[in-house]
Amino acid sequence: MRRYPTISIGVVALMLVSTTASADPPDPLAEFYQQKVTWAQCSGKLAELECATLVAPLDYAKPAGDRISVVISRRKAGEQERRRGVLFTNPGGPGGSGLGMPLFLGKTEIAKVHDLIGFDPRGVGGSTALNCRAAPVIAAPDSRPGDADFPKWAAEAREAEEACQKSAGGIRQFVSTLNTARDMDVLRGALGEQKLNYLGYSYGTYLGAVYGTLFPAHLDRSVLDSAVHPEWVWREQFKAQAVAYRRDVEAWAAWAGERNEKFALGKTQGEVLGEVEKVAAKLLAEPIGDHTRTSFDGAVGVGARYRPLWADLATIVGKLKAGEKPAQTEGAKAAQLLAKTGLSELRSGVFDTVTCEADWPTDVETYYEDMRAFRERYPFGFGIVRAAPMTCTFRTFTPPEAPAKLARNGYPVGLVVQAEGDTQTQYASGPAMASRLGHNLITVVDEGKHGIYGGGNKCVDAKVDRYLVDGVLPGSLTECHGDGRPDVPKDGEPPKPAQAANLEQSIQTYLNGRGLSAIG
Predict the structure, then answer these.
(1) CA nearest 25: which of 57, 55, 68, 63?
(2) Would you call 237 exposed, middle or buried from its count of C-beta atoms within 10 A (0-12, 13-18, 19+)?
(3) Which of 293, 365, 388, 439 falls between 20 and 30 A from 506, CA-CA?
(4) Phi-psi region of 483 (alpha: psi -120 to 50; beta: other; left: phi over 0)
(5) Eight-class DSSP state of 436
(6) Contacts of residue 502, Cβ cutoff 8 Å, sequence gap at least 6
(7) Pick from 390, 380, 388: which is nearest to 143 by CA?
(8) Are 103 and 97 spatial neighbours (Cβ–Cβ below 8 Å)?
């Protein structure tokens, strides 16, 4: 900081001393911000894009020390005469590769006016990777484990944490949201841009909020799609996932109860949920091939979150209720497809390191108490996993800094997009993030998707496009409707012609069209 001493005697000498002392010290990060970006065609499925590799400090507190590489991708604005800068993207995770994001967004309106930038965050994919050794499986998968099995879940989490620390201990404490945000700013500087625009999904919403907190002067327009709750980083966020699954199941059960003439599962929400529990008990006693109570609980959760699949889910439960045999297992096979979809959404990449940047309870009894409640109340969608001990329970490293306190001080009002039935970031997360940052909120009514923009919702796409392209904000509280529920009449209404459909094919067709979630 420049200092100006009081001038008394020896004016010339004092001025000389002041001039010397006030010289700005060299910026230790200048070489990173000023590095040259050399673009080349990306390989494989990303051949339509350009890729480049840059370097960043491993530890920003010691920029002269070890370095890491960060791989980025680019799709230039389709209409260069309208170009308004770069738009950074992140698909979530933590641990998701972002190199393909410009390809995913290539046909959107925003691709016409922005250079779309994707990147693999530190620890991920083509960047300096955080690779952890695999730990042995100790606990058998079970959506409703008994108390005697709880220590096995804890032992497996401890083993996984220790295995990761042994193979990645040198860089783990520096793989964090704060450092990834700093990497983003290095990338911005290297690209020669004064400001960046941002579109982040899921965990990427938190990353974008952290970036804006650290570098408000360098953030222009921002869209946070399927937001993380700013007060739930991280354990409460995961517990809330199970609660969201339960709410979706209850909404589906109420819908099915109004159509008992069609599905024969009961006339009320309670009666339908009772039939679900009877099927679960039947599968516990006698699984159908690989389809067990655990996979059934997972299937019910996933099927209930996606409204267009509600009739399919009711059909699955009906077939299993009727008593499918191993030689005739259409319902069981369709349920397995839903269950596998739920499992694939649980964890990936550097998840077990980034989520440890915040403190977790270290007393396993805290987790066991939650597990007892969750196996009874929230078994759907593998809800018990959200309450069980995780690697962060047994964290073997100390994060060098606390998580950021999110704030918006100096960058424009942005958008938060949140679906009512989202199970990965429960709906309450969206209003909370919008309130914290003073952003405008788009609620997607009666929708269970996670990651909305670019996934076929015309209302959301239009509002986000108008904001990112033209800078026009929608209302502070705005609604769009999600994918429609099945066109099945309520009891007492005229029946409609039955449409024969292969359950597995029907479900897979929908899942393939979910937008970002379908490629994650």
Answers:
(1) 63
(2) buried
(3) 293
(4) beta
(5) H
(6) none
(7) 380
(8) no
Task: Give 199's contacts (C-beta < 8 A, 6+ positions apart).
Answer: 87, 88, 89, 90, 105, 110, 208, 222, 223, 225, 453, 468
The answer on pLDDT for 118 being more than 60 is: yes
Cα–Cα distance for residue pair 89/185, rounded to 1 Å? 13
Task: Say if CB 300 and CB 276 are below 8 A apart.
Answer: yes
Cα–Cα distances in Å, from 199 out to 83, 206, 366, 507?
A: 17, 11, 36, 29
Say what angle helices 503-512 and 310-322 make with each other, to 10 degrees.
150
Asked if 183 and 56 count as a contact pair (C-beta separation under 8 A), the reply is yes
Residues sharing a CB contact under 8 Å with residue 358, sequence separation 6 or more, in sequence order: 233, 234, 235, 392, 403
Q: Which residue has the higher pLDDT, 145 or 170?
A: 145
pLDDT tens digit sequence for 474-505: 999 999 999 999 999 999 998 877 665 688 88
Handedness of CA 358, 356, 302, 453 (dihedral sign): positive
Report yes or no: 446 and 505 within 8 Å, Cβ to Cβ.
Answer: no
pTM of the model: 0.91
Our CA dihedral for 460, 462, 464, 466, rounded to 10 degrees, sits at -160
Cβ(59)–Cβ(98) under 8 Å? no
86, pLDDT greater than 90 = yes
- What CA–CA distance (Å, rounded) separates 296 from 59? 45
Could you write out the DSSP letters of every residue in 227-256?
Answer: PPPTT-TTHHHHHHHHHHHHHHHHHHHHHH
Pairing of strands 50-57, 40-41: antiparallel
H or E element in which residue 225 lies: strand 219-225
The strands making up 115-119's β-sheet, listed across from edge to edge, are: 40-41, 50-57, 67-75, 115-119, 86-90, 196-201, 219-225, 415-419, 440-445, 477-481
C-alpha closest to that of 242 among 355, 135, 404, 371: 371
H-run or E-run covering 374 = helix 364-377
Please name the residue that has the structure tokens 């050399």.
38
